[in-house]
């Protein structure tokens, strides 16, 4: 099922000025495009989570630059950019007793929204979302 | 097994009587014959007759390394040079060298003390003892040598270095005991294994006596796992007369022969004695030394004293493994903290690397804040904030349990903390006093 999931790049960063710039500079130098991005902040450190167009290259680039980085399997969900989009997903997963650990989203193409989800049971969630026809199938 | 059972199992009351008597004699001897102590007593307005017993110990001055340097070479001596049978000297790498002299009786006390110690950790006349401590001005080699010979063991005086030959001789002559620094033992094991020799399987080595540098319980485990031998700790300082004290087979601290050495544990800041079981600086008064008696010698080593009778039957007090140096001590909210304690905690947590920094700040309300920065191990990183927060919390709890003071733990990126080639400086004190 892993082909239907998205690989998210997660980077550990200390909460200090210039750290985000240092990470994004490396990606910029390699011409890597960030498609979705969020920072989970926790006091003296944070974790940058992002979906990029060239995942493996981004991973290697950041690793070589000395960052603590890991790849995480997440789900991408495509919905119409209209009221109730997120509700449909949350309800389907909730009914199946699947917990959403975190979520972030962005809109694209003027009428679409891409939602990135990390859940506690990714295989089961993939199955359900596929059945609902919500799973993102496009190119990142 | 005892070397001198009458002395080693002497009732504590009798030991104390000996100490009372010898302390009084020492004070008079030092005052009469040592220019340094005579001057010191006079400056303090202290009369040797003021010291009537152990209870008067706190009235006596401390003796520090600097005193030995200032009185180089003979200002501390209390006998004429004609009575000196041997000198040892420090290398002088950290300043002026210090020199120590011994009368024939001083050597006798040293050898007898070491015979008791080696017997306590299990060396017998059947052993072949490879002494890989340096011989010469350094006290290690000769200190072990004379005692091992007196016990009747076969001595192999390899001294330090020439590792290939050490291993060859160990194998060919069937060494059963080795005495060297713990780091040299690890090097020997590594060297042997590269040459396709297993110390556990290809030699008869059964035990090692390690010291002359601080080492930890983790290092003991590592040595024992790699070589299949039993590792014992030894303690001594060149000023007191080289290697003197070892653990017994119970391995619950090192026995200090109290009929020759009087020990106290003090708070290195205030100089006051601390209670039983509390850590502090080891202070030793030599009760039998003639050539260069030392009164309240500040070793600079931090340990804990145990006076309860040992399961081995010996009544003499013990000191636990040296925890660190007094000059490394930091005081946080009135509590003494040693970087080595922090290191010890961190080494037990697999998710962090071996590099760390301790940062001290003072908050506006006057309270000290200690921050311990540690590097996250690459393998321990997931994308979960909660995992890292949990790790920080776990480290902080371990530190609190060991140090008795709260530390803020900060996880940082691997490779970002400072690396040290020489002596590490891991404390940044930003407090304005």
From TrEMBL, chain A:
Cited SUPFAM superfamilies: ACT-like (SSF55021)
UniProt-listed Gene3D superfamilies: VC0802-like
Source organism, top-level taxon: Archaea
Alphabetized CDD domains for the sequence: ACT_Bt0572_1, ACT_Bt0572_2
Domain ACT: 8-73, 74-140
Official protein name in the record: Amino acid-binding ACT domain protein
Organism name: Archaeoglobus veneficus (strain DSM 11195 / SNP6)
Top-level taxonomy: Archaea, Methanobacteriati, Methanobacteriota, Archaeoglobi, Archaeoglobales
From TrEMBL, chain B:
EC main group: ligase
Pathway: Aromatic compound metabolism
Keyword Signal in record: no
Gene Ontology biological process terms in this record: phenylacetate catabolic process
Subunit structure comment from the entry: Monomer.
PANTHER family with a match to the protein in the record: ENZYME, PUTATIVE (JCVI)-RELATED, PHENYLACETATE-COENZYME A LIGASE
Name listed for the protein in its UniProt record: Phenylacetate--CoA ligase
Species: Archaeoglobus veneficus (strain DSM 11195 / SNP6)
């Amino acid at each position: 099922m892993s082909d239907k999931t998205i690989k998210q790049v997660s980077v550990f960063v200390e909460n200090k000025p210039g750290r985000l710039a240092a990470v994004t500079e490396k990606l910029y130098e390699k011409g890597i495009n960030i498609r979705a991005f969020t920072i989970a902040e926790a006091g003296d450190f944070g974790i940058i989570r992002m979906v990029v167009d060239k995942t493996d290259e981004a991973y290697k680039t950041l690793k070589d630059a000395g960052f603590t980085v890991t790849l995480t399997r997440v789900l991408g969900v495509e919905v119409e950019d209209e009221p109730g989009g997120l509700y449909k997903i949350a309800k389907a997963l909730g009914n199946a007793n699947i917990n959403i650990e975190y979520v972030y989203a962005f809109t694209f193409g003027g009428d679409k929204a891409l939602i990135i989800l990390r859940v506690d049971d990714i295989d089961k969630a993939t199955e359900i979302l596929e059945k609902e026809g919500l799973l993102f199938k496009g190119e990142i | 097994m005892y070397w001198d059972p009458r002395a080693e199992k002497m009732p504590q009351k009798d030991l104390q009587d000996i100490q009372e008597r010898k302390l009084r004699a020492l004070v008079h001897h030092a005052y009469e014959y040592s220019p340094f102590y005579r001057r010191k007593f006079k400056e303090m307005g202290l009369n040797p007759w003021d010291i009537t017993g152990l209870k008067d110990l706190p009235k006596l001055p401390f003796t520090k390394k600097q005193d030995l340097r200032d009185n180089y070479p003979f200002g501390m001596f209390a006998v004429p040079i004609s009575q000196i049978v041997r000198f040892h000297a420090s290398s002088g790498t950290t300043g002026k060298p210090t020199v120590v002299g011994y009368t024939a009786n001083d050597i006798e006390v040293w050898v007898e003390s070491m015979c008791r110690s080696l017997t306590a950790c299990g060396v017998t006349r059947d052993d072949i003892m490879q002494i890989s401590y340096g011989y010469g001005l350094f006290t290690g080699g000769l200190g072990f040598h004379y005692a091992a010979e007196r016990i009747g063991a076969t001595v192999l005086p390899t001294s330090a270095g020439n590792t290939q030959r050490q291993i060859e001789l160990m194998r060919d002559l069937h060494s059963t005991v080795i005495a060297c620094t713990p780091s040299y033992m690890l090097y020997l094991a590594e060297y042997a294994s590269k040459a396709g020799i297993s110390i556990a399987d290809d030699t008869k080595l059964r035990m090692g006596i390690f010291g002359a540098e601080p080492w930890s319980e983790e290092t003991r485990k590592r040595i024992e796992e790699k070589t299949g031998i039993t590792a014992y700790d030894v303690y001594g300082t060149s000023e007191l007369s080289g290697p003197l004290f070892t653990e017994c087979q119970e391995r619950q601290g090192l026995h200090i022969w109290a009929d020759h050495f009087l020990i106290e544990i003090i708070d290195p800041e205030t100089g006051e004695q601390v209670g039983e079981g509390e850590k502090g600086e080891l202070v030793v008064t030599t009760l039998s030394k003639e050539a260069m008696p030392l009164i309240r010698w500040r070793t600079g080593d931090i340990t804990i004293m145990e006076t309860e009778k040992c399961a081995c039957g010996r009544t003499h007090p013990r000191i636990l493994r040296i925890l660190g140096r007094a000059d490394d001590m930091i005081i946080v909210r009135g509590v003494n903290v040693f970087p080595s304690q922090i290191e010890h905690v961190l080494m037990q947590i697999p998710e962090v690397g071996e590099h760390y920094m301790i940062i001290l700040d003072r908050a506006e309300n006057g309270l000290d804040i200690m921050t311990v920065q540690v590097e996250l191990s690459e393998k321990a990183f997931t994308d979960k904030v909660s995992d890292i927060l949990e790790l920080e919390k776990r480290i902080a709890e371990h530190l609190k349990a060991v140090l008795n003071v709260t530390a803020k733990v900060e996880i940082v990126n691997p490779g970002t903390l400072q690396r040290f080639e020489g002596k590490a400086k891991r404390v940044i004190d930003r407090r304005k006093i």
